[in-house]
Each structure stands twice: as structure tokens, then as C-alpha cells.
């Protein structure tokens, strides 16, 4: 999967020998790509980001057939570590609870705990909000650790370039990396891919549509004692440096499927978007809808919609239109709408579990798996779409991926001011198409 990308498209972004000023050499004395560090067959895992997905991913890592234990946890907030720990060790998790062997001193709270947690593990799970992923992935690779990391893998172009550089290094170190774009591990998609790409059942793909339209997600309240940094960290979905906007955080899944089937990424994007119902200050700075036309280098247009507006029609899907038919997840039709194939999914394994089954199998048996570059390119495609809707301009891929606009704060402390701040009434500036500078 990862070798399939058209390397000329981003080769200039991956040439750096160092990343963010850090040398990517392995740690002294550690075998490159070995899965254990102390001579037994137990695989130690550290969890960085102990929220909803982190708890789920840790459960899945501990559910593989290999001998896996959780030895370290890191989170910005103590209450999130405590909640995750008690969930994983609860009586209802009888199959995995005894594999949670996290000593109190190996629970790390704050922005810097990730380094110490990574040092204790063979495999790290990176499940913070995506703004931190480049920093955490870079450090995991620097320390020579195998990685499961959630999508998206960044929120801006400088972050993508850091991930691409670390991805190159991870390959040199024979590290195994799985990215949580789980449709690549889902039988219904894999069976569709076989028929569309290997058997060419719909002919050549000439157009595509994809959607993530639904009501939206949670909101976290501002408490009086919170600093601005704590508030944005708690309510991270609504701040672009942390989340990437919902086109990046959720719609990436659908855009990624089209990239996968097209074996590449778009080269142009033009779009529109804004906020129609997301008016309150609790919704930070993100849009509630985006529409993007992405153009691939063969001229194919992907029409992409994502919307968070309660009460509107829900649709989360991808559709490929070919010269001989149409395909969507698990279904293929001819051009007249007659069904040609339908996947029966009663026996399919949970793709979130398959991701971990594959990762640990590849680690133990030294088989190749490295999704980092792919994950970075699909993340960049969703950032590219956001740049198009925020700016209202027709944008080129090369300009977007080489943008030097960093959204990240200059430092990570509870008193640091993030780059986007509220006005006196608590409202954040919203990007204005025609005026917003994105590149
Ligand atoms: N593949 C999927 O279907 C899927 C589903 C849900 C979430 N996700 C992804 O998983 C990631 C986490 O989402 P979630 O729903 O679990 O969010 P969450 O808010 O429940 O958890 C995130 C955790 O990270 C912690 N955190 C934030 N910054 C940190 C830092 N610098 N260091 C350490 N910890 C930090 C937070 O305190 C929180 O506990 C996101 O990237 C999201 O897109 C993927």
C-alpha cells in the first residue's frame, strides 16, 4: 500500500535528514525493528492519549493472540488516565484486565509524559487529538518503537512533512506502523477493492463522490478555572490546530477510500463551506459544512461533502463511477442500476481489531506493514480540502503541502496562549472565504 504512492509528488518534502531538529538515529544498544527489548517474548505497549479511542485501541492491542501487556499510559489530564485505567481493568473486561500492568509511576500526566511512556514500551499507541501526532510519531520513531496511530496524523502541512520524514526513517528502521484508517482492514472494502481494481468490474473510474454528513459531535464546557490552553485542549474538536476541522477529523475516512482506489491523491481543489447552525462560542472556530471538488491528475473529479448539522440527512459513504458500472462499499451495479455483486458481511471481523491483529503479527513475524506515508497523504488531502473551503481559492497540491503556515502553539504549557483566541465576548474568529490566508 505505502509503496504505491507517486513519489514525485512529495519527494521534495521528505528529503530532510533530521526532523524538527531531532536526529532520527536509533537508541544506543537497541536492535532495530526487534519487538522486544529485554529478551523475553512479552510485547510491552504504551498508550499515549487515554480517551475514548485510546481505551478502545488498548483493548484491541491486548486482545491479539500474541503476548501483549500494557505497561505505560500518558495523557495531558489525570482524570483521563484514571478513567481509561479503570475501564480497562474493570470486571467486564475479563479477557484483558490482567494484561494491564501499569505501575502508578508509569502513568504520566502532562504534555511531556509521552517521552517517558514511549521509552518503556516496544509498541506505542498514539491516540491524542491529531495536532500532536507529528510530535509523538517522530519521538516513537526516534526511539525505535513500532506504532499504531490514529488518523488524522496531523492538522497542518508542516506537521504532514514531519510525519513523512519520520515515516521514511521508520522504514529504514524496519518499524511496523499501522494507521487507524480502518476501511483498509475491513473485509467489505477489501472485497470491493478486489472487484473494482483487480477485476475491473466497473471499467475505468471516471468520477467519485463521498460523504460524511451527520449531526456532529460532543461539546466540552468551559469551566471558570481553566486557562485558555486547558479549555481548547478539553474542547479540542472545535480548534483547528488540535482537530483539523471535521473535514480532516472524520471525512478523512471517505476521502482516503477514494485515494486508495485511485492509488494517488488529488492535485487541485476548489470548495466552499461555512457555519450555518454552529453559531455558539462553544463551537470554537470550525465550519459546520464543507463541499470540495478535488481533481486527480487524470482529470477525475471527486465531489466531497461533509456536514455537521442536526436534523439534516445522514450519509457516510463513498461512490465510484466507472465506464461500465458503479461501486460502493460491498456493492457493485452496472450502469443501468442492476446489481452485479453484493458482499454478505455476517462473518466479518471488527476492522478495529484486525488493525491490531495485523500489526502484532507483522512485528512478531517480521512481515512488512507501514501505513505512515499513506496516512499522511490522506490526511494532507483532507487538509487540502479545508484550505480550499477556508480560502475560497482554487489550490494546487504542491503549494498546499509545502505551506509553511503552522497552526501549532509555540510551546506546550497550561499558560501558553494558542494562536487562535476568543474576543471579549468569547467568540473565536472564523475563516472568511476570499480573505483567509491558508498557504
Ligand atoms: N478510526 C476511527 O474510527 C476513530 C474513532 C474515534 C477517534 N479516532 C481518532 O482518535 C483520536 C482521539 O480521539 P478520541 O475520540 O479518543 O478523543 P478523546 O478526547 O476521547 O481522547 C483524546 C485524549 O488525548 C489526550 N491528550 C490530548 N493532548 C495530549 C497530549 N499532548 N499528550 C497526551 N495526551 C493528550 C486527551 O486529554 C484525551 O484524553 C483522534 O485523532 C480521532 O480522530 C479515530
Class derived from helix and strand content: alpha/beta
Q: Can you count the helices?
A: 13
Shape: globular
Give the tally of structural domains: 2
**How large, in whole angstroms, is the Cα Rg?**
21 Å
Distance between the termini: 29 Å
Looking at CATH, the homologous superfamily of the largest domain is NAD(P)-binding Rossmann-like Domain
Query: What do the pLDDT scores average to?
Result: 92
How much of the polypeptide forms β-strand, as a percent range? Answer: 15-25%
What does this structure look like?
With 439 residues, the protein is of the alpha/beta class. It has 2 domains: 2-183 and 352-370, NAD(P)-binding Rossmann-like Domain (Rossmann fold), CATH 3.40.50; 199-345 and 380-401, Dihydrodipicolinate Reductase, domain 2 (2-Layer Sandwich), CATH 3.30.360.10. Helix content is 30%, strand content 19%. The protein is built from 13 helices and 15 strands. The strands form 2 sheets. A 9-stranded mixed beta sheet has the order 14-13-12-11-7-10-9-8-15. It has a 6-stranded parallel beta sheet with strand order 3-2-1-4-5-6, with helices on both faces. Helix 10 crosses helix 12 (372-391). The chain is globular, with a radius of gyration of 21 Å. The two termini are 29 Å apart. Nicotinamide-adenine-dinucleotide binds at residues 48-54, 74-77, 80, 111, 114, 127-130, 132, 150-151, 180, 182, 233, 249. Nicotinamide-adenine-dinucleotide binds next to helix 1 and strand 2.
Amino acid at each position: 500500500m505505502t509503496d504505491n504512492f507517486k513519489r514525485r509528488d512529495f519527494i521534495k518534502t521528505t528529503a530532510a535528514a533530521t526532523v524538527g531538529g531531532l536526529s532520527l538515529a536509533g537508541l544506543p544498544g537497541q536492535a532495530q525493528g526487534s519487538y522486544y527489548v529485554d529478551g523475553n517474548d512479552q510485547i510491552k505497549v504504551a498508550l499515549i492519549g487515554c480517551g475514548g479511542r485510546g481505551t478502545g485501541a488498548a483493548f484491541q492491542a491486548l486482545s491479539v493472540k500474541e503476548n501483549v501487556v500494557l505497561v505505560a499510559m500518558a495523557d495531558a489530564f489525570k482524570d483521563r488516565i484514571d478513567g481509561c485505567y479503570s475501564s480497562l481493568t474493570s470486571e467486564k473486561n475479563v479477557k484483558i484486565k490482567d494484561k494491564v500492568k501499569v505501575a502508578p509511576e508509569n502513568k504520566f500526566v502532562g504534555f511531556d509524559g509521552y517521552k517517558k511512556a514511549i521509552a518503556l514500551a516496544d509498541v506505542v499507541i498514539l491516540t491524542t487529538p491529531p495536532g500532536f501526532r507529528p510530535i509523538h510519531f517522530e519521538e516513537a520513531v526516534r526511539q525505535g518503537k513500532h506504532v499504531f496511530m490514529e488518523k488524522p496524523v496531523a492538522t497542518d502541512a508542516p506537521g504532514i512533512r514531519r510525519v513523512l520524514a519520520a515515516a521514511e526513517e521508520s522504514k529504514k528502521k524496519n518499524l511496523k506502523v499501522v494507521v487507524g484508517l480502518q476501511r483498509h482492514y475491513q473485509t467489505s472494502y477489501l472485497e470491493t477493492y478486489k472487484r473494482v481494481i483487480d477485476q475491473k468490474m466497473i471499467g475505468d473510474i471516471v468520477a467519485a463522490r463521498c460523504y460524511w454528513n451527520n449531526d456532529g459531535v460532543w461539546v466540552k464546557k468551559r469551566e471558570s478555572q481553566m486557562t485558555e490552553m486547558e479549555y481548547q485542549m478539553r474542547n479540542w474538536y472545535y480548534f483547528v490546530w488540535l482537530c483539523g476541522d471535521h473535514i480532516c477529523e472524520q471525512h478523512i475516512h471517505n476521502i482516503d477510500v477514494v485515494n486508495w482506489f485511485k492509488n494517488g491523491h488529488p492535485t487541485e481543489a476548489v470548495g466552499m463551506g461555512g457555519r450555518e447552525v454552529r453559531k455558539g462560542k462553544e463551537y470554537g472556530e470550525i465550519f459546520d459544512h464543507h463541499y470540495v471538488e478535488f481533481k486527480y491528475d487524470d482529470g477525475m473529479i471527486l465531489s466531497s461533502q461533509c456536514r455537521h448539522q442536526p436534523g439534516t440527512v445522514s450519509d457516510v459513504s463513498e461512490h465510484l463511477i466507472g465506464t461500465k458500472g458503479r461501486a460502493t462499499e460491498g456493492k457493485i451495479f452496472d450502469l443501468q442500476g442492476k446489481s452485479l455483486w453484493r458482499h454478505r458481511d455476517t462473518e466479518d471481523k471488527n476492522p478495529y481489531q484486525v488493525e491490531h491483529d495485523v500489526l502484532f503479527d507483522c512485528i512478531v513475524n517480521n512481515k512488512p506493514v507501514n501505513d505512515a506515508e499513506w496516512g499522511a497523504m490522506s490526511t494532507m488531502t483532507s487538509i487540502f480540502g479545508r484550505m480550499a473551503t477556508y480560502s475560497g481559492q482554487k489550490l494546487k497540491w504542491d503549494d498546499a503541502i509545502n505551506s509553511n503556515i503552522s497552526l501549532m502553539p509555540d510551546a506546550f504549557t497550561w499558560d501558553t496562549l494558542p494562536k487562535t483566541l476568543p474576543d471579549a465576548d468569547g467568540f473565536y474568529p472564523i475563516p472568511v472565504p476570499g480573505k483567509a490566508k491558508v498557504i
